Amino acid sequence: MGVDTSPSYVLSTSSGDMNVASFILKEWGISQEYQIVITIINPQQTIQLGEAVCFSINDYAFHGFVLLLEEMYSDKHHELNIVVISPLSHYLNRHETRIYPNVTLSELLHAMLTQAGLCDKLNYELKLNASQKRIWLQQVQENSLEFFHKLLNLYGLFYEYEQTLEGVKCVITDTRSELIKHQPIELKLKPISGLNGFNELSKFSRESQVCTQVIEYQYYDPDTTELKRSRVSSNHPYAIGKQVHNTVYRQSLIDEEGDSLWMTLQTFMVFPGQEVLVNHPMTTSNYTVKSMILTGFTEQTAEKRVPLTCEVMLSQSYSEFPSSSAIKPKPYSIFHLGRIEQRQSAYPNVSSNGEYCILFHHGQTEEKSFSPQWEKIRNALYYSGNHYGFSSPFQGATEVLIGYQNGIQHQPIILGALPTPQNLSLVTDKNQSDGLIQSLSRGQLLFSESSKQSSVMLKSADALTKFKLSQQSNESQFLLRASTGNLALNAFNHIQIKSQELKYYALEQVRFWCNETMQLVSEDGMAFFTSKTLISLQCQTELKAKSNEFFCRALNTIKLKSTHTMAFVATENLNIHTALGSQFWHTKSGQIEIRARGKLILEGGNSITILTPKSIEFQTPVIALNALTISGL
């Protein structure tokens, strides 16, 4: 596609279309993500942050979302500056920790994109033709867009935005030829007349790389029981590092040793990924468009400026993988491929302690194999049965338990992880579940996952008589959150939770239950319980909640039950709120005590019922009881 000498720039919003005075489109390249800085003079429409917009150069569209708004007023005009980012930069701009267990690549991408708010076939489409293996991946406090780019590099995938004035769709494929819809183009450079006698090409800029490759090694020190790191530097022609630019303007010979070529066009005629043949009397070279910068002005802002400038970066060493900002895949991110090998220095008998290595591959397809990554195993420990278990410093100070059956070393089993090197995991014939971790003290941590729910169960070798969660010195709050479904905490005897701040969230129900006493103490902050349908606190002996501020909110029902006594103490305000339903306070044999130095508010959409065979004590300077029906007082 070519753009004429008088292109039109339009920004389409939900309120209407506006003419653009100037713009600069940056970072548009193989990664497909871009950023547009737009200036509008005397805007006639309103724009909101986060709004979906469409910027068009004639009939070529760039969709995105408004990231930044800046308004400037003067005697002459009202100027509006807008920053628009590409669709995936908007949807995936978040840091997350997620585990993708035993999924195919298609299932992983579907889960990642739909959770971000995109709709299959409408906002994105997968066109993966190669056979897919099941993999285990985890995203650990990574930016989702960077994690997405890492997946592309890891498995050799490509993507492109299919954009029209009506909408945009992200197409992901494993065949690059499906995305390259633009035919190769030839540009001829003559020593005197310029580019074929025309003025499209006005500048050449050569870039030669003088780079340093830095390799970081991690090893385990058995004396200090810590992970240590060392770095080794070496010159590498294509490593990402320091770059030295050699720029020559106007007519110049092409440096054949250089890797990249910058050129400036006064028209919009090439696209990322398109092949370009640069023809010169001294040399003829094939390049690929790697990145572009578009700059445009209208006559009302700059009469003497070129209406459209296209600065293009061409590369001879174009990689078959899209750019991912030098994100390196880490060994802990992929589990499905590996080989456990015994070093020559180790004893051949695996029943004795020896030095082992695990070889991880950063993905593998039918056509290509990737460079392996070695991780040192400090000890191999033999256990009875068909499993071997040993620990490896895997991610920070975390140790991962790896085993294999019947001596088949190229089929390792990732069995689990514990956060401390001193408490090793143990696998035996009695513990063959890949979701179960057992410590040397016979404590067990069981992970259970199905299509409807996920759960974590902690089982001790001795009887569990008390369940206690206490605040550590370096923590500021204690938070339990269930974003989908119910949040339940059950104990056979006692529940005792202490922290500066207590926060409990659940989409459906919050339930606390125990046989004996329940104590919820927020010493300096506030206690906050919120649920869509039900909040239930039940115990057989004593229920006590103490906080600076106590706030309990449920849409339908709040149940507070204790066999003996019940006490709610707030040094400031206490607010128990049910918008549509009822509150139920009940003790079988003890009294109910409610104290607040500030305001005490009990608000029920339908009813408030307080039942006790003994006394009800309210201590507060201000009390408000709001409900259609109040009984039991």
Please specify the SSE layout and strand pairing.
Elements (H helix, E strand, L loop, with lengths): L8 E4 L4 E3 L2 E8 L5 E7 L10 E6 L2 E14 L4 E8 L1 H5 L3 E9 L1 H11 L8 E4 L7 E9 H12 L2 E6 L4 E6 L11 E6 L3 E2 L5 E8 L3 E10 L4 E10 L8 E6 L10 E6 L9 E6 L2 E15 L10 E8 L23 E4 L13 E6 L10 E6 L3 E2 L5 E8 L2 E6 L9 E6 L6 E2 L9 E4 L4 E6 L4 E6 L6 E5 L7 E5 L4 E5 L2 E6 L2 E5 L2 E6 L3 E14 L2 E6 L2 E13 L2 E6 L2 E6 L3 E5 L3 E6 L4 E5 L2 E6 L2 E5 L4 E4 L2 E5 L2 E3 L2
Care to count the β-strands? 52
Radius of gyration: 32 Å
Tally of separate helices:
3
Unreliable stretches covering 5 or more consecutive residues: 190-215, 234-258, 318-401, 403-434, 463-477
Write out key terms for the chains shown.
single chain; 633 residues; mainly beta; 15-stranded mixed beta sheet; twelve-stranded parallel beta sheet; elongated; Gp5/Type VI secretion system Vgr protein OB-fold domain-containing protein
Description of the molecule:
The chain has 633 residues and is mostly beta strands. Among the domains are: 335-457, no CATH class; 464-631. 4% of the residues lie in helices and 53% in strands. It has three helices and 52 strands. The strands form nine sheets. The chain has a 15-stranded mixed beta sheet that branches. Strands 34, 35, 37, 38, 40, 42, 44, 45, 47, 48, 50 and 51 form a twelve-stranded parallel beta sheet that branches.
